[in-house]
Design brief:
By secondary structure, the protein is α+β, with helices and mostly antiparallel strands. Helix content is 23%, strand content 29%. The chain folds into 3 domains: 121 residues, Nucleic acid-binding proteins (OB fold (Dihydrolipoamide Acetyltransferase, E2P)); 82 residues, no CATH class; 96 residues, Vaccinia Virus protein VP39 (Rossmann fold, 3-Layer(aba) Sandwich). It has a 6-stranded mixed beta sheet. It has a 5-stranded antiparallel beta sheet with strand order 9-8-7-10-11, covered by helices on one side. It has a 4-stranded parallel beta sheet with strand order 16-15-14-17.
Length: 344
């Protein structure tokens, strides 16, 4: 049977081989790829296709015929309905192995790079209560706040989310009360929120207040940020990220590209005579400058411009260059400019 004969709502059995990008369990049927949300390696499943493409299809689990030894009961009562989390049904070690497999697959398939056999794993000390930031969708007419259902724009109404930090969870409860008590001129909206242990910063197309700046302490560094700026989400890994990124880095000059609110800039400034930090988002640069000033760091030169434009205009050599690009990655033009700065 070929994939073109597979129809939506038909039923068939398969075994999940591995986890791939997007958190899907990958299996094969009639020689074709089938992607199954919430599958676990080793599962024997009865599935029903809900989206068919030329070379693959997506299918939902109808029955777990034989569960994988790596499968566990999820902590969150919304898991499977809510589309925010992909791995709560997997043992933690299996989650980490799946992520390593996804990285290796992306390096081979997209980057055309042969990955190392071993990729070191840095464990979070906690599996839950770690997120400092969240993006929620709002249905104002129905007083709903939550995440989208998987493969849908329908909002799953969330009362409790176990991955949120305690202060974010507290704010979620407050937000639900506000939606139920206030009147709004629109039916739908969204909200971005970032939190420290006591405060929150909010930006929303419903609530028009400007997001206030809050402070987050990471090791010896204190950062100013708000809901419009990017900041790493896992509060338990922040210090380790800095340690790994700048390990052994010292010298006279340092270039920090895509510096954001200065997450790596501040600790780098303690190891180098001069740090040049580049970031397109002006608000993030202003927050980084605010943090640097509060820390008494006067050896940082901030540039609010596109990285590619900065590199065109500045061809000086640096002892150390750190790149922390957005999810879209580094532009080819930027990589070519960086190669010209290489001391070989």
């Amino acid at each position: 049977m070929s994939l073109k004969l597979i129809e939506v709502d038909s039923l068939f059995e398969l075994e999940i081989e591995r986890i791939v990008t997007g958190g899907y369990g990958l299996g094969h049927y009639a020689g074709k790829v089938v992607l199954v949300p919430l599958g676990s390696p080793g599962d024997r499943l009865k599935v029903k296709p809900y989206k068919i493409h030329e070379n693959f299809c997506k299918a939902e689990i109808i029955e777990i015929i034989k569960p994988s030894p790596y499968r566990i009961a999820p902590v969150c009562k919304y898991f499977g309905e809510c589309g925010s989390c992909d791995f709560q049904h997997l043992k933690y070690e299996t989650q980490l192995e799946a992520k390593v497999g996804i990285i290796k697959d992306c390096l081979r398939r997209i980057g055309k790079i042969d990955p190392p056999d071993e990729i070191p794993i840095i464990h979070s000390c906690e599996m839950f209560g770690y997120r400092l930031r969240a993006h929620w969708h709002l249905s104002l007419a129905e007083s709903k706040v939550g995440y989208f259902r998987r493969d849908s724009n329908e909002i799953v109404n969330i009362e409790h989310c176990p991955i949120l930090s305690p202060n974010l969870q507290k704010f979620l409860i407050e937000m639900r009360g506000r939606l139920e008590s206030e009147k709004f001129s629109k039916d739908k909206g969204h909200i971005e929120v970032v939190s420290n242990e006591t405060d929150v910063s909010v930006v929303s197309d419903v609530f028009k207040d400007e997001p206030r700046d809050i402070q987050v302490k990471v090791g010896d560094n204190i950062y100013f940020l708000n809901a419009r700026s990017f900041f790493q989400a896992n509060r338990f890994l922040l210090e380790k990220l800095i340690e790994l990124a700048i390990e052994g880095a010292s010298g006279t000059t340092c270039l920090d590209l895509y510096c954001g609110v200065g997450f790596f800039t501040l600790p780098l400034a303690k190891n180098f005579k001069t740090v040049v930090a580049v970031e397109q988002a002006r608000e993030s640069i202003l927050l980084a400058m605010k943090s640097a000033k509060a820390a008494g760091l006067e050896n940082i030169k901030f540039h609010s411009q596109k990285v590619r434009d900065f590199l065109k205009q500045n061809q000086q050599f640096f002892d150390f260059i750190l790149i922390d690009p957005p999810r879209t990655g580094v532009e080819k033009e930027v990589l070519e400019s960086l190669l010209k700065l290489a001391p070989f």
